[in-house]
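One thing: could you explain this record?
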Amino acid sequence: MATYIIHECVDGGGLQNGGRGLARASDGRFWAVFLDRPAGYSFRQVLCAYSDDGGVTWTVEQVTDDDTADHRDPTIAVDSSDSIHIVYHRLVAGQSVLFYMRRNGGWGPEETVSQVAGASQVDGKIAIDSQDDVHVVWDGGGEGANPGFRQIKYKKKTSGSWGSTELVTDIADTQWAASVAIDSEDNVHVVWRGVIWEDHTGYWQVTYRKRTTSWQAIEAVSDIGDSCYYLCIALDSDDVPHVVWQGRGILWPTGSHAVNYKNRIGGSWSALEVVAEDEDGNSQQGMSIALDRDNNVHVAWTGRGLGLADDTFNIRRIVKTGDGWQTRIDITTETAVDNWYPCLLWAMWPEVGGVRTNVPTADRVFLVWWYYQDDVRFYTFAVIIPTVTTDPATLISQVSATLNGTLTADGGEPCECGFQWGLTDAYGHTTLTESKVTGESSSRAIGGLTPGTTYHFRTFATNSAGTGYGADRSFISTPTFNRAYALSREEL
């Protein structure tokens, strides 16, 4: 397990609950999307960052450049050509407009997904299908038979062109906070919060609808006498929907404070499972869900209590295997700073070379979150190859020297660190190793050198994921002092 800082924020945040803030390209590059206010700007902009070393270091790109209003709630997806797709919204003439941008080598122009006079369009979520078509869901008013209420809306972009807006709902009550997933047959699965039915009208319930060639019947996932919040959907390899949200608990059977979960098998929703609940009723919220390639269910959220501080939100995760829910893992253990909006890596598509690049293997978990008022962070449960820095040699003499290096990131577990050295950058000699962790330095003395000779060396570190190498450095051993030559110079 390891945590790395993606970006230190000035006025940041913007990770979107129910959407995806993290994607992975076919070459292993991670992409994260978030908000911050760059120097010289008055309003928050959309930023993207990428990492080519497993999340250890990140390069940040500014995506948007409109300084008339804050940008909000970006989400991200990647296609089979490794193009990056994002949606977000921004105020224009007093109403929020939903926008889209694509990166294919560089960021293309901003495109309007939805702008409706007198009605805001917000909370866009994006997904890619097997044909690299773009699917977006959001909520907004101003259309249909009930224009005064926010409805769930959908639009698809095919071959570079946006289709027409489809109303997933058209109900005389507010519907909002959608989450979307695309299955193996390119069907669209959407969940959202809605007030519509059954025995408990007046409360926000988890609601589901599927689009095949057309939209199927709306289904109630929850129907309880309390409102539900912070929902997210993902699918397993059999296209079974799995949904997680903030809802009712067992110890505290009223109110919405626990992590709730259901799946849909054979057309029916399973019995409610309470995944996590604090004995003192502290809130658990901001849920994200993912499935791995073995169909294990991974859930991440932020919550108070559960053995940690009752007044601080910390990031937690848990996995459900064939043996049931396993032991919860506390990713953060803060006592003063809140941690918000975890987003797990997951998407059914793309598939490249027979591999679903955004469905992790069973031993991998990746997520991003917002460390409140400070930075955006990346977490990996996977052990990754360590990174090291080769430092200058010291204590150089005619026949010996000390080689130095620093373990800049251990990849999630202690590493065996040592050095390779020799007359060329092919080296030929390897020192003994010693165990080190992130931030620690290592040194090894070598001997048997020839005076006045150039030697090359580099440091390395090995963990269970592999070996990382530092850059090549060189030094010259101290030359032999020629006394006869020195005397002759002195006589002159």
